[in-house]
Amino acid sequence: MGLIVWGTKMKVFLISIFSAVAVIAAFFFLKTGFQESTNKGAYVISLESWHNGQRIFKFPEDSIFVSGELAIQQIMRLDQNDFNGKVSLTQSVDRYYLIDFNRGLFKDIGSDLEQQTEKIPWKGLSEKKYGTNFRADLHFNENFKVKDTLWEGKNLKNISYTADNREQYDILLEQYSSKDRLPIFYDVIEQRFKGRVLKMTTTYPDDKGTLIYTTKFVSLKKHPLLDALSRLK
């Protein structure tokens, strides 16, 4: 989840929200043969922090616009203004990443989608500082408990386990046909159970709160970022 925060009285620069909560981040790459006709649109990734039944904070959504084998990740920022003790937050786009998931590479193309990007060097995804961490460790050495469940009218798989560090994971996964050529977010769990993770809840030990991750795909025929993808290299 991409977040950059600036304030009038204090300036806080977060390298990545997921430096503290990397276990929620996605291991996201595209299968060979990814089909533009059925997967042109945006994946919207949301993350919320909860404690004692109350939502503490909702992070800016991480949007991944996909068309063909390339994607644009939109990184948001928050401007924090403190006027006479009254704090307000303003959200805006900070930068874009051009991502080639097949090759595991990205370009930081800044905030100008009209610029020429051919000379901007490709870098490994592990060097990406902001937004969803595509190479996070999700502690998938533990034993899974699996059962069928119903969520928002959908028949899903409920997968749960406790990590060695006592973090508890509860995952809702929608199964898809093995013939579907879809992008993979969570390498181990989605390929093993042949499904898309729709929701992941991580509960931290010692009453440290809960993080709730959700992802959904929005099919789009037209969007300025999808148009930009056809021009960028």
Oligomer: single chain
Which geometry do the CA atoms define? globular
**Tally of DSSP β-strands:** 13
For the largest beta-sheet, the strand count, sense and barrel status come to: 13 strands, mixed
Can you write the helix and strand succession as a string? EHEEEEEEEEEEHEEH
Distance between the termini: 24 Å
Radius of gyration: 18 Å
* Class computed from helices, strands and strand pairing: mainly beta
Q: Helical element count?
A: 3
Task: Write down the overall mean pLDDT.
Answer: 76
Considering DSSP H and I runs of 4 or more, what fraction of the residues is helical? under 10%
Low-confidence stretches: 1-37
Share in β-strands: over 45%
Features:
single chain, 233 residues, mainly beta, 13 strands, 7% helix, disordered N terminus
List the helices and strands and how they pair.
Elements: E1 5-7, H1 36-39, E2 41-51, E3 54-58, E4 62-67, E5 70-83, E6 86-100, E7 105-110, E8 123-124, E9 145-151, E10 154-162, E11 168-175, H2 187-193, E12 195-203, E13 210-219, H3 224-229
Parallel strand pairs: 1-5
Antiparallel strand pairs: 2-3, 2-4, 2-13, 4-5, 5-6, 6-7, 7-8, 9-10, 10-11, 11-12, 12-13
Quick synopsis:
The protein is mainly beta. The protein is 7% helix and 45% strand.
Characterize the structure shown.
The protein has 233 residues and is mostly beta strands. Strands 1, 2, 3, 4, 5, 6, 7, 8, 9, 10, 11, 12 and 13 form a 13-stranded mixed beta sheet that branches. It has three helices and 13 strands. It is globular. Residues 1-37 have low confidence and may be disordered.
